[in-house]
Amino acid sequence: MTALPHPHTGDLFESPVIPGTGWPGDLATPRTPVANNADDVAKIAGRCNEPTDLDAAISVCRACPRLIEWREDKAISKRAQWRNEPYWGRPVPSFGDPMARMAVIGLAPAANGANRTGRMFTGDQSGDWLYRALHDAGVASQAESIDAADGLSLDDCRIIAPVHCAPPDNWPSPDEKRTCAIWFDNELSALTTLRAVMCLGQIAWTSTLGAARRLGWQVPRPAPRFGHGARAEITRTDGTTVHVVGCYHVSRQNTNTGRLTRQMLDEVVHTLRGLAVE
After folding, report:
1. Structural domains of the chain, ranges and CATH numbers in brackets
2. Maximum distance among all alpha carbons in the chain?
3. Which of 76, 131, 220, 223 has its CB surrounded by the most CB atoms within 10 Å?
4. pTM (2 decimals)?
């Protein structure tokens, strides 16, 4: 593969899907353990004592063959407008403050968004909507999220996805979701400062409640239903309350049709921040 310069840093990358190339934000090294199946995921996640270790292990995971093929194919075939740029082409780790009180839960990386840039909600219209709202709320350092080297940072907030690889048709299989849920559970458990969660869409909502149950947290019964602006409370094993707020996903399907407006998104983000500091 011909070496290409990263559009922001100018660094050359021989392959967009091999870790340790110096890509901005790449925490993996040749010593980072690689999960090749669900059992490996459970073993490796259980040994990760630091958020950086978990992020690094997630970024080299190879547990789901269909997702590996899809994400790497997209990194090689590319969309025409980015044909001269390298793609990340790997699982996308979480992004933000590892001691955050707020979390935004998505679904999975977009094939030509985070799968290209290597950072959650970066490089596509969904990210434009989300980070503008977070910036207006004083959570994101800037309103635009272009690539992993653009200097963006989050204050007291972390973005997590139940699935870390770009899936075909934006739809991971049940087995793929179950495997990646092992990473997801460990991430939520490790985020001990968490006080409020914004779930972008039905899948994020059900994934968050499911993880809470697996972790032994108290979840209301019957299960709270997702809806834009819906709210629920779950209780961690230490007795801490975590507020859960629903928000329509910032997908083009929702934002282009007006199902989700900027005002609606701003209102939920404002609620999220308020609940996190109660």
Report:
1. 2-274 (3.40.470.10)
2. 55
3. 131
4. 0.92
